[in-house]
UniProtKB/TrEMBL annotation:
NAD(+) binds at residues 212, 244. This is Glutamate dehydrogenase. SMART domains: ELFV_dehydrog. The active site is at residue 129. Belongs to the Glu/Leu/Phe/Val dehydrogenases family. The record marks 169 as: Important for catalysis. PANTHER family: NADP-SPECIFIC GLUTAMATE DEHYDROGENASE 1-RELATED. One of its GO terms (biological process) is glutamate biosynthetic process. Pfam families: ELFV_dehydrog, ELFV_dehydrog_N. SUPFAM superfamilies: Aminoacid dehydrogenase-like, N-terminal domain (SSF53223), NAD(P)-binding Rossmann-fold domains (SSF51735). The keyword Oxidoreductase applies. One of its GO terms (molecular function) is glutamate dehydrogenase (NADP+) activity.
Amino acid sequence: MAITNEYLQRVYAQAEKRDGDQPEFLQAVREVFETLGPVVEANPQYEANGILERFIEPERAVKFRVCWVDDEGKVQVNRGYRIQFNSAIGPYKGGLRFHPTVTESVVKFLGFEQILKNSLTTLPMGGGKGGSDFDPKGKSDAEVMRFCQAFMTELQRHIGQFTDVPAGDINVGAREIGYLFGQYKRIRDEFTGVLTGKGLEWGGSLARTEATGYGLCYYTAEALDKLRGDSFEGKTVAISGSGNVAIFATEKAQALGAKVVTASDSNGYIYDPNGIQLDVVKDIKLGHRGRIKEYADRVPGSEYHEGFTGVWTVPCDIALPCATQNEIDEESAKTLVKNGCTVVCEGANMPSTPEAIAVYQANGVLYGPAKAANAGGVAVSGLEMSQNSYRLSWTFEETDEKLHDIMKDIVASSLEAAEKYGKKGDLMAGANIAGFIKVADSMVAQGAY
Ligand code: NDP
């Protein structure tokens, strides 16, 4: 696809010039701009107010040094980031990622996507994202704690329950959120909902752990129903990753009647033709932070293969990528289609390259883009913020029902926006348009700043 509108072309050219060294960020901006032509043409006030120029420029970008002491007593230095991208509709909100691949470009692409995702949830949350190039693999628990404390020692001056509320992302789960929250409380001497994904005993929300994976399946089921009159029942599903999102997507897809046949980590993937035994995956990944290879040693009839992108060579009806960005390239997309896959909904952020998306579009694949399909996590984070403000907790069922309704509404608002702007049935264009208009109108209303 191309950027068709002259204003959008001009702003994108400016981004290429300024941020030419940020490929992931430019990829995310381009994907959105390719779908916004009709919206910008129908709303000349956006160009008059410089909305697109402002939309791609973070309100604030913080980059900081994180020094911590390892178990040998040696000082280690990592880089920390927090991108406070857009606060037009609420406090900045978005996760923290700890992974050696984290760069300013990665955090900016995630923060940019987060603006639209948070808008789609209908909850009052702006867009932000952060993280570090710290690699928790092979680190002791005490090292992870010291790193988290050092990270929060700097981050705490930039965040707050009404300013910016981070959450988890890759390698930032319950353990890390605990250490981060503890350090914030120690320094600021206040117990507030400054982070989401907290433990249930200290301000967390029921269903937050499950939210992204469950939400992905609610979204996929709703899209299947509305666009094809179909369901998960009897379908074969390939899922990548074996972290938070993958595990709970597998759990819900199985509950909805599908057979999930794969799981993976960054080393390789497992194929279980009899259907993944999720209790074994949970024991390996949540129980002792092991490698997915162990599954094949424990479950007869399953296979392990080195190389994590091989997961997309397994025949399936539905693919749910739940690991990382750009994990499905053109070749993998073609293989999926050749093997009969007709649905790709994204649990991970930006897991499909632009070339892969073109393959889906050329082959009538039902494509649910990340910013809509994986919005369940931040939606329940938003609900966690509400519960913290009320100082009460909803039941699992109550929260899960709200999550289910939000995911159904995201499909509905995406389809409605797509139809209004001449892209009937296009969930990607619809998500970009519906998410964008709310933020853009708020920016116009609040004046230039
Ligand atoms: P976890 O850290 O719990 O799990 C990540 C999984 O993906 C692991 O299996 C990991 O394998 C694999 N993985 C990570 N990086 C790579 C890589 N570069 N190459 C191959 N495999 C990789 O993270 P989450 O499950 O929370 O996040 C997964 C995706 O979902 C991310 O894209 C995240 O941004 C997105 N997401 C998460 C939300 C949440 O609520 N947690 C909300 C919305 C989106 P290994 O253990 O070997 O590293």
